[in-house]
Amino acid sequence: MGLMQLIGLGKATFSHGIHPPEYKASTGVKKIRRLPFAPEMIIPLSQHFGKPSVPIVHEGQEVVRGEPLAKADGFMSVPLHAPATGIIKKIGLMPTARGPKAQAIVLKLHSGASQDALYGHLQDIDNMSPEQIVKAVQDTGMVGLGGASFPTHVKMTVPEGQKVDTVMVNGCECEPYLTTDHRVMLEYSMDLFAGIRIAMKAVGAERAVIGIEDNKPDAIEGLREACPKDGTVTVGVMKTKYPQGAEKMMIKALLGREVPSGGFPAAVGVSVYNVATLAQLGALLPHSRGLIERVVTIAGPGIEKPGNYLVALGTPLRFVLEQLGFEGDSRKLILGGPMMGVSVASLDVPVTKGVSGILVLTEEEKAAQMPKQVWPCIKCARCVQACPIHLNPSELGMLAAKRQYELMEERFHLNDCFECGCCTYVCPSAIPLVQYFRIAKAINRENKAREAA
Amino acid sequence: MAENAPVIEVRTSPHVRQTPTVDQIMRNVVYALLPVAAYAVYQFGISAFALILVTVLACVGTEQLFCRLSSKRTTVGDFSAVITGMLLALTLPPGFPLWMAAVAGFVGIALAKVMFGGIGLNVFNPALVGRAFVQAAFPVAITTWTPPFAQGRFTEFIPSTWTFPFALPVSVSDWVKETSLAIQQASPGVDAFTGATPLALSKLGNGEVAHFVTDSMDLFMGTTAGSAGETSALLILLCGAYLAVRHMMDWRIPAAVILGTYVTAEILHLVDPSAYPPPMFMVLAGGLMLGAVFMASDMVASPVTPVGVWVYGILIGLLTVIIRLFGSLSEGVMYAILFGNAASPLISAVTQPRVYGTSRKKKKV
């Protein structure tokens, strides 16, 4: 198989992209440790892409760790599970990372409870049909843990008329600071392989490729040795570059295929999952348990004890930061990585399924990153040379300034932008290009909705 | 809330950025131009120094004036006007009357930059617009060349430098003769200097008289007559390399210009070697190097697309050779670049990159 050899030999990559400083040294070498339970957990009903979950508990009800708290609302939704044993304090509006308050379940912990996850039963995956696996995956409440929070069972449902031949496992972790996937690959490799087998079975793929950037040689070595001898699962070494871990970039780099504009990876026979997602799935599905905790990189110059921590979902940021020592003059909190993460304004925001990192930046850090002023575009073409999708952000930015949003979509492929931030990162004029594009997309969406109505 | 509740700042991603900023890039271009300017002063003396000083002051002053007039925050801090001033001086003959140089600087900034909206919005390279203006307005002065390495160049000005505004420039022919004689006496091996540039010399031929093609090595090292900063191809290339290595200049543009020039000249030279000079001469002579490295590569006025920069550069090279060989002027780089500037929005528009997951062929979206 020429292609497989090719994958094994060279360092695969896509064209364009950027090389931001990695900042991974302080956390990448540290073992995952468990963070204590917070006295009170906040579990938002919408932690995933799709419809919010529907609560099946009432205020004052006692719940056991791992017990379902909310059920999925249709196919494009997932259930929620209790992150700890305790009592439901209230169901109501609570702060979220996105800004506006949203419905959430507040859980007060029993201080004396053992916090053993007792819920669930064994199930034999080998004797399940793909449809049964997809249903079981939905019941775990699993979503993409890389940050997009797309329901995993939806990804595992191959559209009619398409065939998936390859499961792609994303261990790139191209965002600076983040090392959760790195540690998961080192410490949960058995769970990961179990998860890969589940995914392969669900989509009917004959092979799987684990894509890892070459800045994680220990993970590459470790997983290569653990790969099954029949050659169905291989490790693809990829160049360290941002955004190597974007699924479209990965597919191009490892398989040379391009996902058609507006389409999904299944259109080119690929199904992509994050390593953390599959490792959790490999651990949860055989016991039909729910997703109640995840590994989070907590780092940045404002944190005294940076590292990777197993955090119960619903733990408020304030509790996390107090546990790890948090400098009082820290000025910026980011959920996720510094390239695509969201900055939050409140410490009462909880850790949710999609939070892969918590970064605390200090005043100096902020000052160093803040552009002093915004200049007009000097057409230096750095953005054009950085855009992984080969858009023309310079032109798009100028059109956005003129509010020609429709032209941006029709002629300059605005909707192919996945907001990786490369253009803004390299812009010497400090133009907030990505923000322009987000606004343009939102306005186009609104206009279309209005026209349709 | 705790009493030391921090003020948390909310911004949109990405939360990290990479320097350099616009003013840092522009400052680096100034650094890259300094050796070229220094060599011009070494070669042509205090006249060249005064020329550079006057054009820089004229450009910066004009920009400051218009910012003041339009009650805008001053934009001289971004150093782009300094670059325009330096480039302008380097393209002028070293003995160019200073008042004319000031007019060129004013016109370049006022007409080609400020009128279009300032940095980033100009269609043409301001330095070249300034030069084009004085080329049309003062055709004699701008083709009056003086020999390099004149003996007293660090103590006395070239006579035409201090021409009184609106007066006819002092004729330098006597001075040139004197100086040339002096140089020849000092070092008899050196060719007789006439002060004419290598390109002008090659154009004298007219098919009957043999062309005077200056040795490539002299052109490369920069020991010939010419505009203040265009003579040493080596130095210009080194300074350009500094910018290219720091990713502050697109190396593909100079490469494309040189390629376009070389190939066009080579084809013509192959057709009729007696009528057309060899390609290496075309590449090294005149303002081509300076134009290719520092002016065609002007970010604002060049295309942004990867294919576009090659088209743009090759077009400039091609036009340069055509103007030089078939036009009435001996030099063609300036008009070639201005033409390239004018074409660059069109070039950008037709060379948009193929977007991931799409096909170049027009399909119904």
What is this structure, in a nutshell?
Chain A is an alpha/beta fold. Chain A has helices at 2-9, 25-28, 130-139, 152-156, 180-187, 189-203, 217-226, 247-255, 275-284, 317-324, 363-369, 382-386, 393-401, 405-412, 422-426, 433-452, and strands at 33-34, 40-44, 54-55, 62-63, 68-71, 80-81, 86-96, 99-109, 166-171, 207-213, 233-238, 270-274, 293-299, 307-312, 332-335, 342-343, 357-361. Among the domains of chain A are: 2-31 and 121-287, Rossmann fold (3-Layer(aba) Sandwich), CATH 3.40.50; 382-452, no CATH class.
- Work out the helicity level of chain B: 40-55%
* Relative strand content of chain B: under 5%
Strand content of chain A: 15-25%
- Main sheet specs of chain A: 6 strands, mixed
Figure out the total of helices of chain A: 16
General shape of chain B: globular
Topology (elements, then pairings):
The complex is a heterodimer of chains A (453) and B (365).
Chain A: H1 2-9, H2 25-28, E1 33-34, E2 40-44, E3 54-55, E4 62-63, E5 68-71, E6 80-81, E7 86-96, E8 99-109, H3 130-139, H4 152-156, E9 166-171, H5 180-187, H6 189-203, E10 207-213, H7 217-226, E11 233-238, H8 247-255, E12 270-274, H9 275-284, E13 293-299, E14 307-312, H10 317-324, E15 332-335, E16 342-343, E17 357-361, H11 363-369, H12 382-386, H13 393-401, H14 405-412, H15 422-426, H16 433-452
Parallel strand pairs in A: 1-14, 9-10, 9-12, 10-11, 13-17
Antiparallel strand pairs in A: 2-8, 3-5, 4-7, 5-6, 7-8, 13-14, 15-16, 15-17
Helix pairs in contact in A: 3-6, 5-7, 6-9, 13-14, 13-16, 14-16
Chain B: H1 22-44, H2 46-69, H3 80-91, H4 98-114, H5 126-137, H6 173-186, H7 198-203, H8 216-221, H9 233-245, H10 252-271, H11 279-284, H12 288-295, H13 306-326, H14 333-350
Helix pairs in contact in B: 1-2, 1-3, 1-9, 2-3, 2-4, 3-4, 3-5, 4-5, 5-14, 9-12, 10-12, 10-13, 13-14
